[in-house]
Amino acid sequence: MWKMLARMMPPRTLRFKLMIASVVCILIPACITISVYNYLTRDAVKEQAVSNAAESLKLVDGYVTNLLKYMLNITNYIQMDSEINTILREVSGTGYQGADIEYRRFADRYKITSKITNITFTGEKSYVTILLKNGTYYTNYPLYEYDPMQIFEEPWFGKLKDLSGIQSYWVGTAPTVFSTEKSLKNLHQISVARTLRGEGLDIYGYVIVTIMENQVNQIFNRIASDQGTLLLDESDTILSQRNSEHVGLKFPYVKQAAGHASDIIRIEDEDYLLTTLPLSVTDWKLVSLIPYKKAIFKIDSIFKKVFIYQVISFLVFLLLLLYLLQAFTKPLAHLGRVAATVRRGNLEVRSFIRGKDEIGILGMSIDHMLDHIKVMIAEITETQTRKRKAELAMLQVQINPHFLFNVLNSIRMKVLRKGDVESAQMMSSLSKLLRMTISQDQDLICFHEEVETVKQYVQLMDMRQKEKVNLEVDVSPDVLFEKVPRFFLQPIIENALIHGLNQCAGTITLRAIVNERQFVVIVEDNGQGMEPHVLAKLRHTVLLGKGLDTAEGEDAYRFSSVGLPNVWERMKLTFGDAFEMKIDSERGKGSWVTMLFPRELEGRSHV
Question: 300: which residues sit within 8 A by CB, 6+ positions away?
């Protein structure tokens, strides 16, 4: 094999080094794995078999526990039901008094019988007996099935006097006493009993709930059909098993597990996997007993097949790896030639290497990178052109602010001397507005300066309109010193005044809030709003920048209306893709413009 490798490639090449490294990295771990495999297989097989048996037993435990809890729930219901207890105390005490004794006795028997019949109707089949000390009884089965008075003669009955409160006595497995069940060859039954006590804690009756043992072994047959499962009491007597063959006999092998939940024990020269699981509602426990060979047969067979597969696959994939390494490294040489061509300044060359592996992705990425470089060069050129166009548009709306400011101040003083205070105030607002245009050395100003500018603008517009507009400002203190481009709010406020409120009275709300990464500015008016098609056209015009190209002679960029497209363009040039603008409107309710600005603009290029 080494001679074949030497013929395939000269030494010290990248391809040769990759093949040698791959063979070494596969061969050494494979040899170690095969050597250790047999040593670890036995323990792994045992652990898996124990785990499988425990999981299966837990599943059985869920069903058996639910069945036993169902029996306890019946006793709880009878013990806690106020109507049943009232009747039982009356019957066990003074008895019925008056002329309608027989009717009341019948009605009460009907009530109790109906209740215990109803609570057992939808669940597992069970036999419920309420037996009072004076011999009165109530059942959900007919008398010909079983005479409840015989319960007084049961050997376990005397133990009930030792119970207190809601303690229960589990009778365990006993011969079936119900004639119908005997005819169906259900030979054993399991019961739970509780006492009924009066106010003085004296026992006046008993509740006994009985199910057939086959209801338990049916769970074994349905859930754990591939293993021997038994239900044992606290003395290791078998209460139930799959075929009911040894019910009532002692199961002597639990102690051989030496207190472990799962262990391998020896029974008649054969190993068995024994697993125990205590029940939560009684002192009983579930036990599974499986021949160990049967428990590990499937797992051991899988391990042997895996071992053979490992040896064969190692040899096959070693040869395949050497072939694939040779094929996979071919594109690397081609990528090297493409990189050398690009280094010489040729951006038209492409590798055309495609695939879903790393080399294919690398080749496609290099091609996309070259395409992106060409697109970026074109975009930079276009951005510079758009930037110059936006700057030109701003210059078109600006007149010499110093000249206007000085002239307006002179006129304001003359008007004020003549007593026309309103006109003087209008000129003062206009002067303050123009003052903001004097300092052009900074493209960005603090947000509070921009707010003051729009306040002066609205005040100026109020003086020229018959109906005044109310400007409400709700700005978070954290936003006041954020840097923003100057005059970005004026076109939006102007839009709200002229188009939203239609130069009528109304309210324009300016809100600004801030979070960790950006701050949000919202301009909202309560004007007439827009129809959906008008809103769609405005979004297309503004957000796609279609409004920047105006025909010659159009007054699209007056000082009072720079225009939403220009604002969008300036914001994009200043903030890039981090800036977002949303325009919304609803007919009859108003319009609102939402702008999202990134924070910390230091180091950015500005319009």
Answer: 41, 45
